[in-house]
């Protein structure tokens, strides 16, 4: 089986139990039993490819393939967590293709002048804790200690989850020796220090292959594309507080209905993005109503607002507009509102020199080098603080992602693998 097809097959394998936390759909959250099982499988494939493996203090799996010189490493990676009811390729395909790059080099008896490390990050989606990219931010050295104070839906903090996490992986090719993750001994200040100790040494570069999660490549009949940069993101948590009351006895004119106020806020968010008539997008993706009874006027609503644009100033201006609109609606409807900024990720342009090498590798495959911006966030935008980054997009059927219908053609994955290997061959002058 060629490497691209094997990468897709392994993603398919990871789409079912025991690699999912849900019995009837794919949901793999950070530091859960399914996450641990996935780490074991990936570490095993890394060993088969010729790498040694370890788990860092942020619970990322890292496979290392030594170079002829012991300088800064080339990093290749993506994430292995997922959203709820996810597709199988968003994240894991980039990890599998990184493994296949090393497998191809190892099978040919080749070592580059630089080491190669394949990293399986744990928390890109933010599907368990109300913050994303915790583990890649730790590697990049940009994670603030307070970010580890967040808790999941059951009130468990990141450090408490890490304290309970247990996984043992094979460490050396051809041996049965194992290595457990070196996790904090307690969920306290010392645990924070050790989590932050996951910061990586200076690196040569970072490459990430990822499904496009959009329709452009398919529309233009191209198997791969070159990412020029990742859009800036803002995410807010909004809490609307009114007054719960009996649905039959609360007069319409006297109600402080949190849900109707929130509904107007949702439409205001949409209006800001539509009126911009640009690349700006804004989404309310989560809304929770309390007390949630059919015969009770809603007394409280929480919702999220996600705002993105390739132009950071445009994104920031939209954020101000959205907050102003939310406050005005709250005042007009007599409800209280609190807005908390959850995420603020700057726009992240990819490195021009790496993009040019990637364009050369794409052209060598007889493919027109198509360049496009990523509206979705990726670990690459975080790792840009550590080293130069580049991303390769892979065509996905219908542009569908975050959905079980997500699909990648193994032939496209094989082309992506050859492009990545072509980029690796062109990195000699960077080492």
Notes on the protein architecture:
- The structure is a single chain.
- The chain has 431 residues and is an alpha+beta fold.
- The protein folds into 2 domains: 313 residues, Aminopeptidase (3-Layer(aba) Sandwich); 114 residues, Alpha-Beta Plaits (2-Layer Sandwich).
- 34% of the residues lie in helices and 22% in strands.
- The protein contains 12 helices and 18 strands.
- Strands 1, 2, 3, 4, 7, 8, 16, 17 and 18 form a 9-stranded mixed sheet that branches.
- Strand 3, helix 3 and strand 4 form a beta-alpha-beta unit.
- Helix 8 packs antiparallel against helix 9.
- The longest helix is centred in the last third of the chain and has 22 residues.
- About 2% of the residues have low confidence.
Show the helix and strand layout.
Layout: H1 3-13, H2 33-49, E1 52-55, E2 61-65, E3 74-79, H3 92-107, E4 116-121, H4 134-140, H5 158-164, E5 168-170, E6 178-180, H6 189-196, E7 205-211, H7 216-219, E8 224-230, E9 232-241, E10 245-246, H8 258-276, E11 281-283, E12 287-290, E13 296-297, E14 300-309, H9 312-333, E15 336-345, E16 348-349, H10 352-364, E17 371-374, H11 379-383, E18 389-394, H12 410-425
Parallel strand pairs: 3-4, 3-7, 7-18, 8-17
Antiparallel strand pairs: 1-2, 2-4, 5-6, 8-16, 8-18, 9-14, 9-15, 10-13, 11-14, 12-14
Helix pairs in contact: 1-3, 1-12, 2-3, 3-12, 8-9, 10-12
């Amino acid at each position: 089986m060629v490497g691209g097809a094997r990468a897709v097959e392994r993603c398919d394998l990871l789409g079912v139990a025991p690699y999912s936390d849900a019995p009837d759909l794919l949901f793999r959250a950070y530091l859960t039993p399914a996450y641990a099982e996935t780490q074991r499988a990936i570490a095993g494939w890394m060993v088969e490819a010729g790498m040694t493996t370890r788990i860092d203090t942020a619970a990322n799996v890292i496979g290392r393939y030594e170079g002829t010189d012991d300088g800064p490493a080339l990093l290749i990676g993506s994430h292995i967590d997922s959203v709820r009811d996810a597709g199988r390729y968003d994240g894991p395909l980039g990890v599998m293709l990184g493994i296949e790059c090393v497998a191809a080099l190892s099978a040919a008896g080749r070592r580059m002048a630089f080491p190669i490390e394949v990293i399986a990050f744990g928390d890109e989606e933010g599907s368990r804790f109300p913050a994303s990219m915790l583990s890649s931010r730790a590697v990049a050295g940009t994670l603030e200690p307070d970010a580890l104070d967040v808790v999941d839906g059951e009130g468990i903090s990141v450090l408490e989850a890490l304290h309970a996490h247990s996984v043992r992986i094979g460490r050396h090719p051809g041996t049965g020796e194992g290595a457990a993750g070196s996790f904090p001994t307690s969920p306290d200040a010392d645990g924070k220090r050790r989590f932050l100790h996951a910061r990586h040494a200076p690196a040569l570069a970072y490459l990430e292959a990822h499904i496009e999660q959009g329709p452009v490549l398919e529309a233009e009949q191209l198997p791969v594309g070159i990412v020029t940069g990742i859009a800036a993101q803002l995410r807010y948590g909004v809490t609307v507080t009114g007054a719960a009351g009996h649905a039959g006895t609360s007069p319409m004119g006297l109600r402080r209905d949190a849900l109707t106020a929130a509904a107007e806020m949702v439409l205001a968010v949409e209006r800001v993005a539509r009126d911009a008539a640009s690349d700006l997008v804004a989404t309310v993706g989560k809304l929770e109503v309390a007390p949630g009874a059919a015969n009770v006027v809603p007394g409280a609503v929480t919702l999220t607002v996600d705002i993105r644009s390739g132009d950071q100033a445009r994104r920031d201006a939209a954020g101000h507009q959205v907050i102003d609109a939310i406050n005005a609606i709250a005042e007009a409807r007599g409800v209280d509102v609190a807005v908390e900024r959850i995420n603020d990720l700057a726009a992240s342009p990819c490195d021009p020199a790496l993009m040019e090498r990637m364009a050369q590798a794409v052209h060598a495959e007889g493919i027109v080098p198509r360049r496009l911006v990523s509206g979705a966030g990726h670990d690459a935008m975080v790792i840009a603080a550590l080293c130069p980054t580049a991303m390769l997009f892979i065509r996905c059927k219908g542009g569908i992602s975050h959905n079980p219908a997500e699909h990648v053609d193994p032939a496209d994955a094989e082309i992506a693998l050859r492009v990545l290997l072509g980029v690796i061959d062109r990195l000699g002058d960077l080492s």
